[in-house]
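Tokenised fold entry reproduced for everyone:
>
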Amino acid sequence: MTTIFDGRYTVDQKGDFVVFMIGMRVNKLLAFRKWIPVASAMGPMLSTLYRHPEKGFLGGEAFFGWRTILSVQYWRSTEDLERFAHNPSDPHLSAWQAFNKAIGSDGSTGIFHETYRVRAGEYECFYGNMPRFGLAAVADHIPVGDRRQTMRQRLGETNENL
């Protein structure tokens, strides 16, 4: 059962971190043999990452839409992310090679990723009556408190009239 944290919460993440969004889009619905292997490739990658936190993966969430699958991930650093992506012993490199061989640029299946470096203190989070989710699932999840009532306060800004 999921624990709901009643009230207002925020996050206190120590140090820099990386937000990595990766996913796929089914462009040709009937091309099952093209997109099913792509959709199936994420499971072994995430399984490896959850079993080996020393690789720098902090955690993440998966979202499923009509044609799109999205994984929002939190990483310790871009170096850790890149090391995982290029390591022949990890499942990403072989999945990437298989994608290029089977699909390449034929248009049947789209893939994407976005990488954001977040410097310490340069982020803001708010969760109301939620389970630990997103960054709160991988960082210190704390009550909002008197000095963190607004977005600007959580960002460490003192002038509320900007």
Notes: The chain has a mean pLDDT of 93.
